[in-house]
Amino acid sequence: MRRTFLLTMLTLSVVCSANAQFVAPGGTIPVVANLPGLNATDWRTDVSVVNLGETETSVRFLLQPEIRNGVKVFEPVITDPVIIAAGAQHTMRNVVETVFGFTNTKGALSIFSDDFAPLAISARIYTLGDDGGSYGQNVEGLLVANEAWTPGIAHDDFYRSNIGIYLPFDPLPGHPVRFAITVFDKDGDDVGDGEIIFRDAGVQQFNLSDFGVGMLLDGYVKFDCLDPTVTFYAYASRVDQVSGDAVFRQARGRQSDLP
User: What is the arithmetic mean of pLDDT over 42-50?
Assistant: First the structure.
């Protein structure tokens, strides 16, 4: 029963997210985190949800796991309904730990209203500075299919870049979903490539070094799903090597590729 409900919610989440640039009954944040990073960073994620409907609504939050070395770090978790009044905002600080109880990991978060009330969603991954302030990056989900690209990537002494893919559905048994990753410099020359394989739903993140990229002053990444019918989310995060501050770049595809 729980698995059937989970699959139904996943279907609703992805369908709602097809128009993620507009107000919808749901949406997806392709990566949320609670974990330490380089240069004394300590990443956490805040999420805010506004009920734009004219009556109160119940909202659920589905956390899909990070996949490391082909293995899920945890099983998917879905919350009980959270009631949000009409026109009200519900904010969750450090959502991975305070709502789901996980630390030292990341995942992907799908959000949906049970009665299809329209929602506005925002998220920020950040770290607290020594001076009491904070720095980080807003995170947004944009559903893509077939091919997608993230421009504005650098990987050198000043910046390091990570890329990630969130696959919202479990592949059919024995039929993993494969992605070809190609990194190009600003002139369009291939400077690194590799493959990411999904046997389960979840998010995988890698450093550009994992694809053979050494020094890249200015370039972009192409995500190519070898099954063009599969929808997914992809992103890049460019991190300042000194301060740890980061910029999030969602992958953008062609609207005509979406089923």
Answer: 95
Q: How many domains does the chain have?
A: 2
Last residue of a domain, one of 138, 157, 185: 138
CA atoms within 13 A on the CB side of 208: 31
In terms of domains, do 188 and 64 share one?
no
Closest-CA residue to 79 (of 70, 89, 90): 90
The dihedral formed by the CA atoms of 135, 136, 138 and 143, expressed in degrees to the nearest 10: 180
Structure tokens at 238: 């460019």
Q: Residue 172 and residue 153: Cα distance in Å, rounded?
A: 33
Backbone angles phi, psi at 97, to 5 degrees: -90, -50
Q: Please state the rounded mean pLDDT for residues 213-218.
A: 93
Report residue 133 as tokens: 């302030």
Residue 17 clears pLDDT 80, i.e. is over it:
no
> Is residue 29 located within the same domain as residue 126?
yes
Give the pLDDT band of residue 40 (cuts 50, 70, 90).
confident
Cα separation, 236 vs 227, whole angstroms: 21
Q: Which of 138, 162, 190 is the last residue of a domain?
A: 138
**Residues 31, 33, 37, 43, Cα dihedral to 10°:** 110
**Pair 95, 191 in one domain:** no
User: Which pTM was predicted?
Assistant: 0.90
The CA distance from 163 to 251, in Å, is: 10
Token pair belonging to 66 = 């990070």
Full residue range of the structural domain in which residue 172 is found: 144-257
Assess whether pLDDT exceeds 70 at residue 15. Answer: no
Pair of tokens at residue 113: 């209203």
| Contact in structure between 246 and 240 (CB atoms under 8 Å) | yes
CATH number of the domain that residue 57 is part of: 2.60.290.11
